[in-house]
């Protein structure tokens, strides 16, 4: 069965590697199968479900942001597998400190999409209980702001001119 494409999709020259199709059927792949021998079909489907949920919420939230319903939305499209794979490798009790774009990570840990969207609507400063899911709230770091906040205490040392001696200013 040919892969479904979305409007605006660019035809890729990179071959598609797939272990699990959209119907949930596992396929053998000479390159990938050796790396997933210890993952059963149920777990593989769970990983796929996490990626699909993240993609669907991302598409909906992008639409909501364009309609002005969200103050901000940082898309994750194309990063689903990396995010789900990284959280899958952790223990359920490991504490995760996500960045502002790691929606698939928080969903995989049980945070509901509505809890996350409250944050992006500006209705809350958090949205979920970090202790319940072992996932801290998002770390927001906008480069100009971070640089300014970090540099502000040091700026006088870098830019200060030696004090004038004698006389008034």
Task: Describe this protein's structure.
By secondary structure, this protein is an all-alpha fold. The protein has a domain at 39-154. Helix content is 40%, strand content 0%. The protein is built from seven helices and no strands. The chain has helices spanning 41-66, 80-88, 103-108, 113-121, 130-133, 143-151, 155-159. Helix 1 packs across helix 2. The longest helix has 26 residues, at 41-66. It is globular and about 80 Å long.
Brief rundown of the structure:
By secondary structure, this protein is mostly helical. The chain has helices spanning 41-66, 80-88, 103-108, 113-121, 130-133, 143-151, 155-159.
* SSE-based structural type: mainly alpha
The proportion of strand residues reads under 5%
N to C succession of SSEs: HHHHHHH
Mean pLDDT: 81
Largest sheet: none
The number of helical elements comes to 7
Choose one word for the global shape.
globular
Amino- and carboxy-terminal Cα gap:
80 Å
Query: Care to count the β-strands?
Result: 0
What's the gyration radius in Å?
23 Å
| Low-pLDDT ranges | 147-152
Helix amount: 40-55%
């Amino acid at each position: 069965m040919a892969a479904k494409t979305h409007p605006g999709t660019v035809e890729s020259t990179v071959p598609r590697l797939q272990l699990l199709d959209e119907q949930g059927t596992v396929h053998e792949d000479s390159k990938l199968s050796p790396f997933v021998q210890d993952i059963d079909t149920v777990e593989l489907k769970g990983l796929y479900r996490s990626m699909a949920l993240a993609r669907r919420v991302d598409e909906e939230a992008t639409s909501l942001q364009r309609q002005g319903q969200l103050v901000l939305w940082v898309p994750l499209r194309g990063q689903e597998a990396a995010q789900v794979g990284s959280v899958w490798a952790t223990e359920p009790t490991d504490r995760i400190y996500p960045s502002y774009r790691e929606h698939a990570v928080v969903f995989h840990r049980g945070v509901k999409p509505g809890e996350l969207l409250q944050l992006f609507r500006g209705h809350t400063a958090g949205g979920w209980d970090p202790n319940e899911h072992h996932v801290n709230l998002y770390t927001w770091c906008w480069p100009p702001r971070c640089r300014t906040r970090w540099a502000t205490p040091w700026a006088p040392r870098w830019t200060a001119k030696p004090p004038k001696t004698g006389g008034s200013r």
